[in-house]
Amino acid sequence: MLSRLSPSHYLDADVFAREQTHVFRKLWLFAAFRTALSEPNAFATRELGGLPVLLQNCEGEIRAFENLCPHRQMPLQKEAFGQARMVCPYHGWVFDPEGQVKTIPHEQRLYAYPPEERAGLCLKRYAVRVVGELVFVNLDKNPLPFDEQFTPELQQALADITSHFGAQAIHADLPARYNWKLNYENVLDYNHVPYIHPKTFQPLLREGISDARQGQPAAEAAPAQDGAELPPPPTAGLAAQSFWTRSPIRIEAWPWHGLVERYGEGDLYYNFFLYPNVNFISLGGLTFLLQQFHPVAPDRTEVRFTLCAAREKRRLAGLPAILWGHLKSEVAVLHEDLGHLEALQAALHRDAPRANHGIYEDRLTAVADTYLGLMGEERS
């Protein structure tokens, strides 16, 4: 079965620009953990859909604005995370929780805006949706209904698992030289694990990660094995492209495991696929890692890591070291993928043949159909 996508979907600047407009500025995008925004005036800054976005705790409510002062387009907040009022560092303009200009130093003497112009001086505001401890932003002026992208059942599962998040989280960004879609396709492809991760990830799997259709017609499903929950079969439609699974996994016991309120029923690997560009996983309900494949250019992706542990029963002085140790392991696994995906991207050219998918890759076909629909393209 030939891939729905041609090499140009991974190479062309024009395609990339249309993705920003039709995919990333239309869909709900993960933006931050709510724990990073729990304090008054706490903020986080992100680039989403090619736009600078500011998430700010405004009197207890998380709001999202374009991170540009309407005066001279200076970012209000320049750090990735912090705690500060919404004040432009360039000329001291102060903004209220609604994003309206509250005060302008020496306003009458230096600016003398007419009343109607003064009333329009405000930050562009974006829609926000919080699911458990995950904060999503939509950049469109008429946001897609959230349930059309993520089913209520998936939202409940996310709320349940993220309710166990601890307060501390760590972050890292890793640049990669490949198209963002290759990384999302890669996390959907369980069949690469024995070949790319034979010494890191594969030994942890007790039953292997399977979509239960290998060697079977797509309409059939094999029974779950030893606690594994299988995903629904792939179908068309936006909401169908986001789902979750769980599979048995080997987890080495550490003393700190008994000091946190873990999620779930033991040694299971929880794997959430959140279209268009997020893979959220948990090892045994003890650690939680969210990877976001942020598009930078047709052949450039920034892989954003956010990791936390389950909520502490009592304070763990060594928790930062525990988290950094886990993140180091996760980055090592990604580096194994990265080398192969960068080689794949480098070898692509406009006249290259399309990929030949096997029956187990029907999820890639479903995702590609959804992508083409968002892009306004015919299936080919």
From TrEMBL:
<dbReference type="Pfam" id="PF00355">
    <property type="entry name" value="Rieske"/>
</dbReference>
<comment type="similarity">
    <text>Belongs to the bacterial ring-hydroxylating dioxygenase alpha subunit family.</text>
</comment>
<dbReference type="InterPro" id="IPR001663">
    <property type="entry name" value="Rng_hydr_dOase-A"/>
</dbReference>
<dbReference type="InterPro" id="IPR015879">
    <property type="entry name" value="Ring_hydroxy_dOase_asu_C_dom"/>
</dbReference>
<keyword id="KW-0560">Oxidoreductase</keyword>
<keyword id="KW-0001">2Fe-2S</keyword>
<dbReference type="GO" id="GO:0005506">
    <property type="term" value="F:iron ion binding"/>
</dbReference>
<dbReference type="GO" id="GO:0051537">
    <property type="term" value="F:2 iron, 2 sulfur cluster binding"/>
</dbReference>
<keyword id="KW-0411">Iron-sulfur</keyword>
<dbReference type="InterPro" id="IPR036922">
    <property type="entry name" value="Rieske_2Fe-2S_sf"/>
</dbReference>
<feature type="domain" description="Rieske">
    <location>
        <begin position="29"/>
        <end position="124"/>
    </location>
</feature>
<protein>
    <submittedName>
        <fullName>Rieske 2Fe-2S domain-containing protein</fullName>
    </submittedName>
</protein>
<dbReference type="Pfam" id="PF00848">
    <property type="entry name" value="Ring_hydroxyl_A"/>
</dbReference>
<keyword id="KW-0479">Metal-binding</keyword>
<keyword id="KW-0408">Iron</keyword>
<dbReference type="GO" id="GO:0016491">
    <property type="term" value="F:oxidoreductase activity"/>
</dbReference>
<dbReference type="InterPro" id="IPR017941">
    <property type="entry name" value="Rieske_2Fe-2S"/>
</dbReference>
